[in-house]
Amino acid sequence: MKDHVTVGVDGSPESRAAARWAAREAVLREVPLRLVHAVDWPLDPVFPGLGRQDVDRWADQALTEAAQELHGRHPNLEVTTRCLKARPAAALAAEAADAGLLVLGSRGLGGLVGFTVGSVAMSTLVATDTPVVLVRIADDPDGPRTGSGAEVVVGVDIHEACDRVLAFAFEEAARRESPLRAVHGWKMPAAYSYVPFFDPDNERDIGRSVTHMMDDMLLPWQHKFPDVNVSHTVFRGSAGEHLVRASQGAGLVVVGRHVRRFPLGVHLGSVAHAVLHHAAAPVAVIAHD
Predict the structure, then answer these.
(1) In terms of CB atoms within 10 Å, which of 15, 112, 195, 208 comes out highest?
(2) Are 17 and 107 spatial neighbours (Cβ–Cβ below 8 Å)?
(3) Contact between residue 254 and residue 286 where contact means Cβ atoms under 8 Å apart
(4) Which residues in 71-102 are b (16+ Cβ under 10 Å) and which e?
(5) Number of neighbours of residue 201 by Cβ within 10 angstroms
């Protein structure tokens, strides 16, 4: 197991919220916390008109203030800082390589539920195989939804090998002493759209079959984590929409993404994309084959 949690810090309210969330996670895992700030100089200075010394001083101050706040909240937590001269996405992805978890701040959508996933967060997300959690200002780690007992929700694809996703979700539920809800959405085979007279029994049979497959997929993990209270929801429709609804009462939503690279970028998948942009809770994205 990798031995620390890394969080990106840039002095913004979003990164401060992410740092508080990451500190709580590090305490739960009983591992150190590393605060990382990347100064992209001279291509993209933090503030126009400032010299390099000013930018470096500002970066050091942002890290120092964040570390001091977290020491005040968690006196026994080991906190280290790193200020790097590199593009933020590349620096954060590199720092994530030896971390058990990378935490990033993301802007909320004003009065709406969900995230605005910026270019740095998205570029970092798809550049690392380390689990990444996106946190908004609204995701107060001291709030009632994110405390002990808040539900962990995980999206499950019964047609894929998603051991990394389930392992992360069960481990998080266990360390938080939280119930775990697994969600899977299924669709009727395309051929049924050409059938003139549809038998409703076929849909019920498929639903029962999918439920049995879900039971079989979860059973080994329930044996491994007997203290985790597990439930699951199987339904016909969009998994992304249901996960977004389930996030309303959750402390964490866990989704997977395939490690597949395309000529025009990296494909996250429709479910992960929907959850990232519309969830009402922190979102953990787990890379898997």
Answers:
(1) 15
(2) no
(3) yes
(4) eeebeebebebebbeebbbbbbbbbbeebbbb
(5) 8
What distance in Å separates the CA atoms of residue 101 and residue 111, rounded to the nearest whole number? 29
For 39-89, write each residue's pLDDT tens digit. Answer: 775 544 445 555 566 667 778 888 999 999 999 999 999 999 998 888 888
Class of residue 187 by CB neighbours under 10 A (exposed 0-12, middle 13-18, buried 19+)? exposed
The position carrying tokens 């942009």 is 277
Q: In sequence order, what DSSP letters do the residues of 52-80 get, joined into one string?
A: HHHHHHHHHHHHHHHHHHHHHH-TT--EE
User: CA 113 → CA 135, 244, 275, 280, 282, distances in Å?
Assistant: 13, 9, 11, 5, 12
Copy the structure tokens of residue 191: 């051929």
User: For residues 79 and 32, what is the distance between their CA atoms, to the nearest angstrom?
Assistant: 6
| Alpha carbons 262 and 197: distance in angstroms, whole number | 40
Identity (one letter) of the amino acid at 173? A
> Which of 5-9, 65-69, 156-160 shows the lowest per-residue confidence on average (mean pLDDT)?
156-160
